[in-house]
């Protein structure tokens, strides 16, 4: 038995390390997707508009989709469903949110771009999705999105679909109240 | 390999006789509860696996009964989903894996000339927690809201947002199964590493030992990942975390990545020991040495390494970028090379051999042919664009049942027939065994082969009803299923008959058998190789 102990110790170490690795896959996955931009996730922070040259020779169709999650009672829709832009042009697009219930609700929109690889080239200067949005019962508001398409967008992309899913995060918001300054980052 | 035991045979007999006096086996149930003997534990694993095989099989019968005709006849869709889910869980974790562990317990110490497993007390624990895991899982079916119904792959959000309260029980039972497997695997590695008889070098080990050694490494590397992913499902569902919930910054596709990082090596955990079994049986009945021993070892190791690099071929339709699908497609196809080496070596072993066709050989031959069919359909599924059509259809069901039923299960059955005379001391009934083989062979193909056709035609899996054009094939499939289920009763009959008596087996049992396990008397005494043999 005694001479088995070193080997058993090593094997238990492998087991524990692999248990840890399973959890390490969670942040690794996000890092990997960020670096490669393969998950359709756009950057969660604003970019500053550089002096990109507007490429008037190309036209890109942007489709806007908006969908409240099934537990989210807000009405949530884009002002227009589709727009044609030149790469490099800065555009502002508004989303309408309405809280038809009688209670205060906090919402968080999560973006997804399709095709996934185009996400790296879809730049947001300002977006309501960067932070949680608050709306009292019965109120509505316009939520702005300011964006441009990077002229470096590979030639085979003609259409980019931007989808927002809106979640009810009131409980998360309430739990984080003391450090409210930090939320949304 | 030639073997010289350190003591002449008559002394060995006397030795065994002495041992009958100080074995200290408690009588009745206590013997089985407290046993640390590798043979007792091996037997318990095998009996447990057989019981689970019939419970999981009964669920398959419910599935086939419902699918016998289009429309809803016997069960509710929700119950149907529970049947497909629990059938998969039971067969994977309750039947195939414990059966292999049972064979490992019985055979590995005898094959390497060790007196027992390295950690006998832990061995007892790793078996005895298993019945409780499956009791929890099976009893959850009777809860209000029913048992797990999200498929054995428990994809989020099906298992988080949309699952019932039995999910907590499902998670705990998977935890227990994982702990059991990890303990078993550590035991196997330590036994093989430290307890080989003098002269039993690495490249003299029987292939069953080699394949199990590699399998045990796969187990300790991926079972913890499974434990991690079920824990994440548990905390997502009950404790407000958001690993797989987009609202909190998580991602449901991440679930699939973690699950299949476990899941694909798991597939090889269920087939590598089968390769070892077939590599033992084919040379015995071909009366030739195994062709390409070293290449078999290297092929097994390369399959194990590649198994960590192909997981996303289960996820081609999640919208992965083209370069990722290409990588996983080619990596998957690469596995066909070492697998092809193995099949080639088995065929080459039989080439010009003096073959006889006893039941273990028949099952091993059927394994080679039918497992290869399952391998080919796997290659078809590996082709990304083709997979977009095959994904989630009965073609996938046909594929993994060919590799797991006519692959893993057939190899286990072959192993049981092969070593049964060594375990019981009696030859099994050859005629009944042949009946079992032929009934199984015909019915299993009637059961699974037409699934390829309905799958290619678009019949989705995991759905309790189907379009009318699939009706005839499904009737055939169900009849094949019932026949296959009934055929396994012949197996139980053979086992009981053999345990109770029969023609006495010789020590070598099979004319062409070689290896340490055939040097000990039949039935194998309670303690073997207390003095290690010397292998020249």
List the helices and strands and how they pair.
The complex is a heterodimer of chains A (185) and B (536).
Chain A: H1 5-36, E1 60-68, E2 75-78, E3 82-85, E4 91-98, E5 105-114, E6 122-127, E7 133-135, E8 140-149, E9 159-168, H2 170-175
Parallel strand pairs in A: 1-9
Antiparallel strand pairs in A: 1-3, 2-4, 4-8, 5-7, 5-9, 6-8
Chain B: E1 3-4, H1 9-21, H2 29-34, H3 38-66, H4 77-112, H5 120-128, H6 130-139, H7 166-194, H8 207-238, H9 252-269, H10 272-286, H11 293-306, H12 322-334, H13 336-350, H14 359-382, H15 384-390, H16 394-424, H17 430-456, H18 471-500, E2 534-535
Antiparallel strand pairs in B: 1-2
Q: What would you say this structure looks like, in words?
A:
The complex is a heterodimer of chains A (185) and B (536). Chain A has helices at residues 5-36, 170-175; strands at residues 60-68, 75-78, 82-85, 91-98, 105-114, 122-127, 133-135, 140-149, 159-168. Chain A contains two helices and nine strands, in the order H-E-E-E-E-E-E-E-E-E-H. Helices cover 21% and strands 35% of the residues of chain A. A five-stranded mixed β-sheet of chain A has the order 3-1-9-5-7. Chain A has a four-stranded antiparallel β-sheet with strand order 2-4-8-6, with no helix packed on it. Chain B is 67% helix and 1% strand. Chain B has helices spanning 9-21, 29-34, 38-66, 77-112, 120-128, 130-139, 166-194, 207-238, 252-269, 272-286, 293-306, 322-334, 336-350, 359-382, 384-390, 394-424, 430-456, 471-500; strands spanning 3-4, 534-535. Chain B has a two-stranded antiparallel sheet with strand order 1-2. Mean pLDDT of chain B is 93; it is low at 4-21. The chains are: A alpha+beta (185), B mainly alpha (536).
